[in-house]
Amino acid sequence: MNKSKCFFGVNSWRDCGFQLQGTKGLIVIDKKVRDLHKHRVDKLLGVFSSVKEVIVDEVEKHKTLKYAELITQKALDFNLNRNDWVIGVGGGATLDLAGFFASIYKRGANLCYLPTTIIAQVDSSYGGKTAVNFQGYKNQLGSFYPANIIGIDTSLLSTLNNREVYNGLGEIIKYIMLEPKTFKDADIDITPLVNDESLDFEKIIPFCYQIKIKYVNDDYYDKEGKRIALNLGHTIGHAIEKQSEYPLGHGQAVAIGLHFSVYVAYSKGKLELDKVKYYYKLLKRIIPNVPYKNLTEYVTINLKQDKKVEREKVLFIYPVELGWEKEWIKNESLVHYWTKFAEVNGNVDYF
Ligand SMILES: NC(=O)c1ccc[n+]([C@@H]2O[C@H](COP(=O)([O-])OP(=O)(O)OC[C@H]3O[C@@H](n4cnc5c(N)ncnc54)[C@H](O)[C@@H]3O)[C@@H](O)[C@H]2O)c1
Question: Which cofactors go with this protein (predicted)?
């Protein structure tokens, strides 16, 4: 079960600061965030009685066991103990790395997350999953270790470039596809997604968060309960994110995965064509311009490494009219679906 306390809004860093006041802290921070939000970070440093920063450049590349060892050395030199704090400040990669380190350092230190990307704010900061990559494969080592406190301030998103915004939108669309009725009932306006306008993040991020809470609390350890649904779009997403020929961000890879899951659902008679077209409209602007055929090789190879693969079958999630379903699908059938989908480059008019 989760034990995180989450603060939202422009004062959320200050609220976390009250909890951290006078403590000893090791801050693992993304270099870009350190430079872009210097004033905010300097203010944060001021709340500690003693503080050390580990500034990480190109974090995804350093989300490794080796780098966790390097942080361990710095923490030992700083005499950090398990009652002190580790603070992750940055996107999902930074939080994964800081969380992974905090979870194993002296069997677990206090942990605070201050997420600065959409992905980190709607997804990775909550739910307790930490991870590092291993030999090029994503998230192969990890733990369940929820942050004690989280501060979510959407004003930090103003410095994200378009690519990172699109990445985040991929995860938001995932929630819309999982819970179309919840979004409709709450009257959340998602038309800006279709019109290429900006979403009201201050409203939509806490809303997505509430949805994630529901799924996580039902199945904290991801044992094929409800939490598996959060994998929507990720089976294919992870498979193509691993290739380096066409560098894709996490959310962009997930967007292609979501598009494919819509196709699988339609092929199985689980979605009406109208809905297929609607979801495509939402996804269209964030799907990167890569011919799907060129990704087939990576889909075929990397599907086998998916953590949800057992006896050559993948536990696959697809959207249905009012929510989602899960189904064990043979690897080879998924590859077959993908090949057909890629042949028409996912063009809905051919479905
Ligand atoms: N643990 C989980 O539950 C979970 C869930 C989803 C994703 N993830 C992980 O999260 C990572 C993807 O998340 P991400 O896209 O946030 O990655 P990221 O941390 O690599 O950030 C993406 C880019 O945004 C930059 N950035 C961060 N904050 C910024 C800001 N405010 N302004 C300008 N630039 C900023 C970073 O420097 C980086 O270049 C992957 O490693 C994925 O595996 C984890």
Answer: Co(2+); NAD(+)
